[in-house]
Amino acid sequence: MITTASTRALVASLVEDAVTAPSMHNAQPWRFVHRTAADTVELYGDPSREMPHADPDHRALHLGCGAALFGLRVAAAHREVGAEVRLLPDPGDPWHLADVRLDGTVGGDEDLAALRSALAERHTSRFPFSEERVPAEILDGLRAAAILEGCRLVIPGDWHAEAVMGLVHASALFEAADTSVRAELARWTRTAATEEDPGTEGIPSYALGPRQYDVTSPVRDFDAPRRAPERASARFEKDPQIALLGTVRDAPAEWLMAGQALHRVLLRATLDGLATSLMSQPLEWPELRPLARDPLSTTSFVQMVLRMGYGPRGRATPRRPVSEVLAFV
């Protein structure tokens, strides 16, 4: 497409944008390989970042990698480079999640390019939101964003939202009773202790948000053991606004599609002035996940619970350097 040196600089910039994507516990479970001869970026899941207790089937890992894939597409479109995606290109290698063939002669997708500024602005917010309702026209735009990636975004009614909140409470109790899950969670939580390396991964103390006086909002407490005693407490919105991202089927290809849809929705929400956070806790338990869906909905499998509203957007969390996640061959 272009000279090798220029190609490497371009690909590095694409991956730098891609890794701003959200992932479970900010584990960043992705790895990229650029094959110069084919001008193709290969996306792999990183087995060293799997979570065998909370994510034994790697569903959340696929969602995170799908989100990074979408960020790569947005970055390519911004640079007016075509990006042809092929999911799961190698049936013999389940960790080879996607190939992206770059084509500088095609030009980028303007709708995708318009989302690029939100890549650096989108941050998970575990802070209280106001009770101001999100307008219907914005919700319609978010639904449309999910449909563009082959998924559905469902805004639950009162009874359904209440049921999901019940699952949030139940999942917190499940987690509290499971020492293996709690140990896994602690691995990815940074509490700013003097002996603790802040690192380039995981959830830092400043992103934990305040504790809830009474649990009215679906915000996970990553510091239930209270290893960060300096955290303040606050009252959260009593009527949280949530959405459920779902798919018709529940297999690796759909998980990757859901990850792309998730990121598209989050970036659209950011441009619309919304703050957002993600709640996977009730979906991590096989006993609870099927109960999250509306039995009257055609969305058979819920892949993520989103919380949205008006409030602080939160700060950027650490990311591994591009040199650590990208190789050229």
Structure notes:
With 329 residues, the protein is α+β, with helices and mostly antiparallel strands. 33% of the residues lie in helices and 17% in strands. It is built from nine helices and eleven strands. The protein has helices at 4-18, 59-78, 110-113, 116-119, 136-148, 158-176, 179-187, 252-271, 322-325; strands at 30-35, 40-45, 82-87, 96-103, 152-154, 211-212, 233-234, 241-247, 275-279, 301-309, 326-328. A five-stranded mixed β-sheet has the order 3-4-2-1-11. A four-stranded antiparallel β-sheet has the order 5-8-10-9. A hairpin with an 8-residue loop joins strand 3 and strand 4. Helix 1 (4-18) crosses helix 2 (59-78) and helix 2 (59-78) packs across helix 8. The mean pLDDT is 93.
Summarize the structure.
With 329 residues, the chain is an alpha+beta fold. It is 33% helix and 17% strand.
